[in-house]
Write a structure and sequence with these properties.
Oligomer: single chain
Shape: globular
Order of helices and strands: HHHEEHEHHEHHHHHHHEEEEHHEEEE
Strand order of the largest sheet: 1-2-8-5-3
Number of domains: 1
Number of strands: 12
CATH architecture: Orthogonal Bundle
CATH topology: Cytochrome p450
């Protein structure tokens, strides 16, 4: 298995360095599904850090691959817009009415007014209240894992923990919690691989899930204030339009955001520690290093691979001129491996001096509102795993999400020895 992975990586490097830069399309989903993206971004950072792809299945787009350029673009929302009517935040072109949008696909001041509605859920007081619940649930999940046999870590741990937390944040029926990460995966995998719309079966599954949110929204709108995201959104002026299709954007955003960072970073962290056994041994001996290991896992995994912006006027990025209306893609997954900004960026180091120097949560007004919750969940679940077992061994190759937007996993075979 290791030899096969090394051969795939070697072939990917050879192809990346023998391909003309004019033919580069780093948004190719196969690069993410096969984990062969790294040499392509490495070459762009070195030779053409602001790169124009003239032709792709997503149309023409600019790739921003260096850490400092990403920070500059992400922090200039007046020049590089997230507006859904201009195309939104994904490399997929999906312009839509602002009324249908989530707040992440809006510019200030609309963005600020809507984001402010959900911010109390992620306050210091809320974190303190959620921590014991997360620990209790993590302990229960881990205590039920099979010992001495192979099982799917994504299903048994990553999905289960995040689905329980999502159900709590939304006050969603607990028995249906698995619908939430499933809905996230259906949204993120994008259109049919052949370029068509989602299949009727997928559309029916998504409709069934989100119709439950409509029922909960209608029941809670106008009711006494509840401490859950649906109640907050349904009863705030900035986020409570009358028509379901006008508020579902924020529901979709919070389902995906509440699922992707934690779920895929839990899995990605286990993979990274198995690939770096010296770091695993060190973490076992010094669990207090989780303070720096958790943000390092999030940097290393880069669960949100990219964010897209649209230029509102001609602008300079590095030595390139981007024209008004052009699509600009910030590759967080590349910025987090930028050796010019992050010391030994190609290495997984659990005791980094500046572990939060990464762009996994974005930058500026769109920085992830739930970043503290994501870090807290990761820290707690790893504290509980380190207390129980010497090691959780990865025994097979992961299956990766079919997406260039979220870098994640659908399964990972592991084993815990008795």
């Amino acid at each position: 298995m290791a030899d096969g992975s090394a051969k795939i990586a070697q072939d990917a490097r050879q192809l990346a360095y023998s391909t003309s830069l004019a033919d580069f399309n780093v948004a190719d989903i196969e690069l993410f599904r096969n984990d062969t993206l790294w040499p392509w971004f490495e070459r762009l950072r070195a030779e053409d850090p602001v790169h124009h792809c003239a032709k792709s299945e997503f149309g023409p787009y600019w790739s921003v691959t260096r850490f400092r350029d990403i920070i500059a673009v992400d922090g200039a929302q007046e020049v590089f817009s997230s507006d859904s009517e201009l195309g939104g935040i994904s490399i997929y072109d999906s312009p839509q009415d602002r009324r249908h949008s989530s707040f992440i696909a809006l510019d200030p001041p609309l963005h600020d007014a809507q984001r402010k509605v959900v911010t109390p859920m992620f306050s210091t007081a809320s974190m303190a209240e959620l921590a014991p619940l997360i620990r209790s649930r993590a302990a229960t999940i881990l205590d039920e894992l099979p010992i001495g046999e192979t099982f799917d870590f994504v299903d048994k741990v990553s999905i289960e923990l995040t689905s329980q937390m999502l159900a709590t944040l939304f006050d969603f029926p607990f028995e249906h919690r698995r619908l939430l990460p499933r809905a996230s995966d259906l949204i993120l995998t994008g259109p049919d691989p052949d370029g068509g719309p989602p299949s009727p079966e997928v559309q029916a599954e998504m409709f069934s899930t989100f119709s439950k949110f409509t029922e909960l929204w209608n029941a809670r709108k106008g009711a006494p204030a509840g401490n859950d995201l649906i109640s907050m959104l349904a009863n705030a002026e900035a986020t409570s339009p009358e028509s379901p299709e006008h508020y579902m954007g924020n529901i979709v955003l919070l389902v995906v955001a509440g699922s992707d960072t934690t779920r895929h970073s839990i899995t990605g962290g286990l993979i990274a520690l198995n690939e770096n056994p010296d770091q695993y041994d060190r973490l076992r001996a010094h669990p207090e290093l989780l303070e720096s290991a958790v943000p390092e896992i999030i940097r290393w995994q880069s669960p949100v691979a990219h964010m897209r912006r649209t230029a509102t006027r001609d602008a300079q990025i590095g030595d390139k001129t981007v024209r008004k209306g052009e699509k600009v893609v910030m590759w967080y997954v590349s910025g987090n491996r930028d050796e010019d900004a992050i010391d030994r960026a190609a290495e997984f180091i659990i005791d980094r001096e500046r572990p939060r120097q990464h762009v996994s949560f974005g930058f500026g007004v769109h920085r992830c509102v739930g970043n503290r919750l994501a870090e807290m969940q990761l820290k707690i679940v790893w504290e509980e795993m380190l207390r129980r077992w010497r090691r959780i061994e990865v025994v097979g190759e992961p299956v990766r999400l079919n997406s260039n937007f979220v870098k994640g996993y659908t399964s990972l075979p592991v084993r815990i020895d008795a």
